[in-house]
User: Fold ubiquitinyl hydrolase 1 from Erinaceus europaeus.
Amino acid sequence: MESIFHEKQEGSLCAQHCLNNLLQGEYFSPVELSSIAHQLDEEERMRMAEGGVTSEDYRTFLQQQPSGNMDDSGFFSIQVISNALKVWGLELILFNSPEYQRLRIDPINERSFICNYKEHWFTVRKLGKQWFNLNSLLTGPELISDTYLALFLAQLQQEGYSIFVVKGDLPDCEADQLLQMIRVQQMQRPKLIGEELAQLKEQRVQEPVLEANDGLAMLDEDEEDLQRALALSRQDIDVEDEEADLRRAIQLSMQGSSRDKSQDTPQTSSTHLTSEELRKRREAYFEKQQQQRQQQDVPGQLPQPCDRPSTSSGPRGSHPAGAMSEEDMLRAAVTLSLETVRNNFKAEGKK
Assistant:
């Protein structure tokens, strides 16, 4: 298909595209076709002037039809196309005319057709051994099968198209030579340019919507990530709070324990007793206890000073007369310690 020349529609220059697609090359330009149109207009004006330049018909012709062969949009009449083809020795015959119908020629045996409907021109041409619709409104050449050609032309006639058969030898072209050796297949029909433009516009309209949807999806993902991050942050805060609470509880517990210890252990900063003083007090207390026991054993006898009790002599569980056992000494020491504690509490209370 790449070797087939196909001019696409520009403005209203369908007559130009029709001729160039037929001849398979850039043979005509708008300037050349305009020159042919002006020449035809001049010939018509001269014929009308033969009846007199002052006649009503001539003045009406000039006023109502300044040019019947072209307009400002780029449209050209069938006369312009016919005169342009005469340069190449080609002739146009109306396909459904009685003269042509009497020839009973099968369309498949022709070489090309020019079709017109509502000022639009396009070419149907045989290249090699296959037929192609070279309408400039299509995005590319459209392959037409031999069996479909007659039906295609009949459909155009039913739609109101005027069909012209191109008679004469067309100029040689690369596509015709190439397609004489090979046959092509078309997997997808070309679209009309209007349909393609509409599809492109639709895609342009849909693309921002898709981008917006992608943006919403991205926002949703970002929001989910944010929610997860906040949840993890709250978990971290909760853990940190729990750890802080635990540390505070331990600290309070330790402070309470220290307070308990401080309460259990009397403060003796001002009434602190050294070990030597405590030893002396215990000895004095032991002597006092021993004197009291001796007085209880011997009535009327005055207490005598005694030596410090000794626990090194004698077997365990026995002691000499007047001496204290280890058990008695331990009880005495505990009693003295308790008295000391009570005295310290009383001293603290008075403060």
Summary: The radius of gyration is 64 Å.
